[in-house]
Design goal:
321 residues, alpha/beta, Rossmann fold, Alpha-Beta Plaits, six-stranded mixed β-sheet, four-stranded antiparallel β-sheet, 14 strands, 35% helix, disordered C terminus, binds adenosine-5'-diphosphate, binds magnesium ion
């Protein structure tokens, strides 16, 4: 069953065509990674799907509800981090969640119970009594996530949930996202980090300049760039000989002292090493390399993707842009 269906979404901001016909489908229980560089149109897409902005053209349904015709009903099915969940820094983590629960009319006992459930689930039970103003960026993101799950939304939208987090906080958030999926929540997350999409998403939609340019599993996207490669580094005195010998059997590409050969599997590596040994070439380094999503992005767009590594954690109180 499709939980999110968008077709032909267009959105213009003055001169900028932020969306130029985005189609998107997300199945129930799936984590969809919406991947693209800065300015690709990820946030605009999320904002349309979560009723925050109206598209100039196109249709979108969430859990069967038309988000343009019936935004109020659609909102009842949606969780969105960092936007709907505005934390009060003067309240404790638990008080914040209880407040959201009361706003959602869970009743006093219901709100407390749900708050404690979520605090445990997201690893925040021990800091439940602390004011959120003292929280680190990572704890805050997790509390945001908890707040957006109070009403048990059918679909959760996460817009760059780990941007600015340190690796430890990022892992904790990934764990939280996985546990939500395990409970059956459908999740759409945007990211600029190829590794994050690779790690979390069941399926990836690559978006660039307001258009979907690829769609598939991480594995399928990697296959499209051509399989793995075998890489051998050699000394300067032997590099010409090594290249000549290997070129008799494989298509070799050379980057200074590094030779790259398409690999059918680990066996190729063994054969390469044997052949080099027969010709008295001692490699300085060897490796079998799987294609990464960076390679995919390069193959799709002809240019490198954005940040290779996330920045450091934002100070407490800061939220994602
Ligand atoms: N409110 C706005 N006013 C003007 N331009 C906007 C607005 N929101 C987004 N844009 C522009 O639309 C494009 C897509 O932006 P956005 O969806 O935020 O990209 P992403 O989230 O992928 O970084 C960018 O060029 C951005 O500058
Ligand atoms: Mg964005």
């Amino acid at each position: 069953m499709l939980v999110v269906e968008a077709e032909g979404l267009h959105k213009r901001f003055g001169e900028v065509e932020a969306l130029r016909g985005v189609d998107l489908q997300v199945s129930e229980g799936e984590i969809l990674g919406l991947l693209g560089p800065n300015g690709a149109g990820k946030t605009t897409t999320i904002n349309v799907l979560t009723t925050l902005i109206r598209p100039d053209a196109g249709t979108a349904r969430v859990d069967g509800i038309d988000v343009i015709a019936d935004p109020a009903a659609a909102r009842g099915r949606i969780g969105l981090t960092g936007q709907f969940a505005a934390l009060d820094d003067g309240l404790t983590a638990r008080e914040n969640l209880v407040l959201f629960g009361r706003l959602l009319k869970l009743g006093s006992a219901g709100a407390w119970a749900r708050a404690d459930e979520l605090l445990t689930e997201f690893g925040l039970a021990e800091v439940a009594h602390r004011r959120t103003g003292t929280f680190s960026g990572g704890m805050r993101r997790r509390l945001d996530l908890a707040a957006s799950m109070i009403g048990r939304p059918r679909v959760l939208f996460l817009d760059e949930p780990t941007t600015g987090l340190d690796p430890h906080s990022r892992n904790a958030l990934w764990e939280a996202v996985r546990s939500l999926r395990a409970e059956g929540t459908t999740i759409v997350l945007t990211t600029q980090y190829l590794a994050e999409a690779d790690e979390l998403a069941d399926r990836i939609v690559v978006i660039d300049h307001g258009k979907v340019i690829a769609d598939g599993t991480a594995h399928e996207l990697k296959q499209r760039t051509g399989g793995s490669t075998c890489q051998v580094g050699v000394a300067e005195s032997t590099v010409d000989r090594a290249q000549r010998v290997l070129a008799e059997r494989w298509e070799v590409s050379r980057d200074e002292l590094l030779l790259t050969i398409p690999a059918a599997g680990p066996q190729t590596l063994v054969e390469v090493l044997r052949l080099l040994d027969e010709h008295d070439v001692a490699p300085t380094e060897v490796g079998l390399r799987q294609p990464t999503l960076d390679d995919v992005f390069l193959a799709l767009t002809g240019r490198a993707s954005n940040p290779a590594t996330p920045a450091t954690e934002t100070p407490a109180g800061a939220t994602a842009p």
